[in-house]
C-alpha cells in the first residue's frame, strides 16, 4: 500500500519531549545556591502528581529530574578572598561611565535583573582574576571595564 494512503495517527505529529538541558561545565554553587537547589527539590518532591493531568505530571517529573541532577552534581565552592575577582565575588565595576555591582554565582542561581550573573557569562569571564583598580577588556574594547571593589558574597 502506498504511503500516501496510510492513515497517520495523531501521535506521530506530537513534538518529542526532551529533558531540560544541563548547562555545560561544572555545577559550581554558592552556599545560597546550594540551599535554593535543595529547597527546589524538596518543593517538587512534595507535589502530589496523582490528581494531575498526565502531561503536567510528566513536566513536573522532568523538572524534578533536572533539579535532582543539579543537587547531586553541585560543587560548593569556598568563599573567595577579596584580592581578585572569583566565583562567589561581589564586584563593583565601571563600564561605559556607569558604576554597577554584580555577584558572580552558579548557573541556576543567576538572576541578571537582581544583579546575580553566572560565572560562565561573558561579563563574568572577562572579570575573572582581575584585581581592584585593574582595567580589563570587554566586548572587543581594551580596558572597557574598571574593577572598583571586590568582596566575598555574604551568606544570604
Tell me the series of helices and strands, N- to C-terminal: EHHEEEEHEE
Helical segment count: 3
Shape: elongated
Which second-level CATH architecture of the domain at 89-152 applies?
Roll
Structural category is alpha/beta
CATH topology of the domain at 89-152: Chitinase A, domain 3
| Beta-strand percent range | 15-25%
Alpha-carbon distance between the termini? 67 Å
The unreliable regions are none
Q: What is the class of the domain at 89-152 in the CATH system?
A: Alpha Beta
Query: CATH superfamily assignment of the domain at 89-152?
Result: Transcription elongation factor, GreA/GreB, C-terminal domain
What is the C-alpha radius of gyration, as a whole number of Å? 22 Å
The residue-averaged pLDDT reads: 88
Main beta-sheet strand count, sense and barrel state = 5 strands, mixed
User: What is the β-strand count?
Assistant: 7
Strand order, largest beta sheet: 5-4-3-7-6
Helix content: 25-40%
Amino acid at each position: 500500500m502506498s504511503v500516501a494512503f496510510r492513515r497517520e495517527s495523531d501521535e506521530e505529529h506530537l513534538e518529542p519531549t526532551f529533558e531540560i538541558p544541563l548547562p555545560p561545565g561544572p555545577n559550581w554553587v554558592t552556599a545560597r545556591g546550594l540551599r535554593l537547589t535543595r529547597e527546589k527539590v524538596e518543593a517538587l518532591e512534595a507535589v502530589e502528581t496523582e490528581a494531575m493531568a498526565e502531561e503536567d505530571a510528566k513536566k513536573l517529573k522532568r523538572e524534578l529530574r533536572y533539579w535532582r541532577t543539579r543537587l547531586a552534581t553541585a560543587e560548593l565552592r569556598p568563599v573567595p578572598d577579596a584580592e581578585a575577582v572569583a566565583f562567589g565575588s561581589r564586584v563593583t565595576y565601571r563600564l561605559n561611565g556607569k558604576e554597577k555591582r554584580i555577584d558572580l554565582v552558579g548557573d541556576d542561581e543567576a538572576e541578571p535583573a537582581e544583579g546575580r550573573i553566572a560565572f560562565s557569562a561573558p561579563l563574568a569571564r572577562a572579570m575573572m582574576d582581575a584585581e581592584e583598580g585593574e582595567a580589563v577588556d570587554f566586548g572587543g574594547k581594551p580596558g572597557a571595564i574598571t574593577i572598583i571593589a571586590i568582596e566575598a558574597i555574604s551568606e544570604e
